[in-house]
Amino acid sequence: MGRGIAGRRGKTAGRGMKGQSARGQVPANFEGGQMPLHMRVPKLKGFKNPFRVEYQAVNLDTIAATGLDRVDPGALHARGLVHKGALVKVLGRGELDRAVTVVAHRFSATAEAAITGAGGTVETLPLPWGERRPPAKGNHLTNR
Predict the structure, then answer these.
(1) Quick check: 111 and 92 in contact, CB under 8 A?
(2) Per-residue pLDDT, 144
(3) CA–CA–CA angle 100, 104, 109 (5° rounding)
(4) Contacting residues for 25 by C-beta, under 8 A, at least 6 apart
């Protein structure tokens, strides 16, 4: 293209008549002096950790209000307190007045002390991917 009048495509070799695009190399994203799109669009600030583990917090006063002797993520989901399949962390707000068996993925130190202090037991569930790092969101290569 662009090798003279006898070229395969004719006189202007497919570049039109006159103008900037007929004469020189113009970047494909050039917008004629207008502020380019990649500079007009606002940029997101900060960093999103793909390995963040999010727990749903359940406090001791919520566990006491359920009235159950054994509280696990399935029982909490049945009462609408956590999402299905959510990782549950028990926090220490409130008090227990009776012995309760609490099964969750994580416990705060104050919650664990309060449960055992009331005569209950604490059972820690393993994380779905083990004790290693969690899989990155959107990454099909989970535990590498």
Answers:
(1) yes
(2) 46
(3) 80
(4) none
